[in-house]
Protein 1
Amino acid sequence: MFKSRILGAGHYVPERIVTNEELSQMMDTNNEWIVERTGIQERRWYTPGVDTVTNMSAKASRMAMERAKISPEEIDFIVFATITSDYFLPGAGVLLQRELGLTSIGALDIRNACSGFIYALSVADQFIKTGMYKKILVVGAEIQSSALDKSDEGRSSAVIFADGAGAVILGQSHSDQHGIMSTHLHADGSHAEELYCIAPSSSGKVRISQEMIDRGDFFLKMNGNAVFKHAVVRFMEVIKEALDHNGVTKEEIDLLVPHQANLRISQYIQQKLQLPDEKVFNNIMYLGNTTAGTIPIALSQAWEQGRLKEGDLVCLAAFGSGFAWASALLRW
């Protein structure tokens, strides 16, 4: 059985920078309130008519391929994590395939929101392990800003979510010293309505109606307190699970890359694990929460900044809508 390894990572974020000051012009909020509760100082929002989930992910994918030193023709399969595909159907994977000119290879969509990228990485890892595919493009990308209620009522989520895309190339590892060691996936659907977007829905009389628009069914809804309380517990559980499964200790972690949900959550996890600042990567302060995009964007930026070195023990962890949570442990 083969082992899989991340060969390269890339990212793209929209050019438009939205500051806390700009948000305070839209809703009853201010910089101090946002920073205290989320740690976010600014975020990127897409420009309609310019940015799409497809073209952002294509730019991230091309960067990942360049860094992995492979050509597009070498990609055998695509696994795409997003809950904000450009079309209701078909999924984002085939649109990216077309954008990159990858004729006839398979494309799979993963809809696990904030934990979507680790779920996608786990799926791709299984394909590599069995030898079915040799090189897989794994993507996490979102445009969330168009689903935000930018009024006073929706401010608790509107100040958090943002747009962007990240991608990695997963390929066969030719060394036992490098690659994905394990992935761990969990979910609890009893909390689905704590963080969700109800429309468009296939279960109503129609998928889109004026009543849905009037009720705000197209806006993201989040119970922030419930999400926070569950997140800090599940993050710790799934990180410990990964460490225990592989017989390593928290002290051996070289870099923890958590889903960028909220800086307070990341700092809580860091404190519990007693990790110094240099062993935790955060970019939520200037990019916000890009849902499935956060971890691949962070991996790409961490590599750029020289914080990922060959042989490093890297832990990825995520929690979000579903509730669904996941972790992965790997040697870079």
Note: The mean pLDDT is 96.
Protein 2
Amino acid sequence: MNIRHSVLALFLLPLSACSEPAPLSSLYAQTLRAYPAPDAFQAVAVDATHFYAVNNFSIGRHDKDSGELQGSWDGVSAKSGPIIHLDSAMVYEGLLYAAHSNFPQWPMASSIEVWDVQSMQHLRSHAFVDPLGSMTWLDRYDGFWWGGFGNYDRIIPPRLQAYGETANTVVVKMDDEFNILEQWRLPEELLPRLRPMSNSGGSWGSDGYLYLTGHDHPEIYVMTIPESGAVLRWETTVMVEGFDGQGIAWDRDELSPILWGISRADAEVWRLQMPSISLP
């Protein structure tokens, strides 16, 4: 087992002015444990007893204490469709919800896919009409569904144009039928941390902050919904040694701030002790 440790910061540095980038090194997370998980390539979801490692076409259900694989769903045979590119996932009322897209195919298509966590049987799908990008994450918070639609500066042959352009990435708030009620763009100063890819993961903390990740950097971005306007506020950043973003999930069955993430390079699921955040 590959266990990494980093120093847990004891205080928060002063925030920059709103017109300046948020600090990149004010807070640190501590990696408590790393679990081998062959499917840990896109994201992880978690409930009271298990974590779920998410790959493009497959999901592994692991015991939360031992890490033992105790169930799976395998869609590799369907990699040409209908399941093409699973991304972040979360568990709500005994069901596993995963964001899904046809990335890198064009034109973009996105859906939400649903499994029963006990049987790991795929139950249903919700396809978006005219999606705002490739759906990369989904979460349930404050009585609503929330999600991210990624767009990319990356050029994917044979196309000669960027795959949607990173600046067009949006975070959305949805009702119980996944109708989009509101949407926000990411602040311009955050975009260089995401390019040429996009926002990859998102999960609401019990502290009322929205935690977002990119595709490459060892960083988790702490965001808030603005009181006015249509651009999220980037408040601060939590650094995670050896981390590379991707899908994350808050553990809502823990009293202490525990966040789950993955290491693609090591095919591991990580259990992280997050710092407590208190902003003015």
Note: Residues 1-19 have pLDDT under 50 and may be disordered.
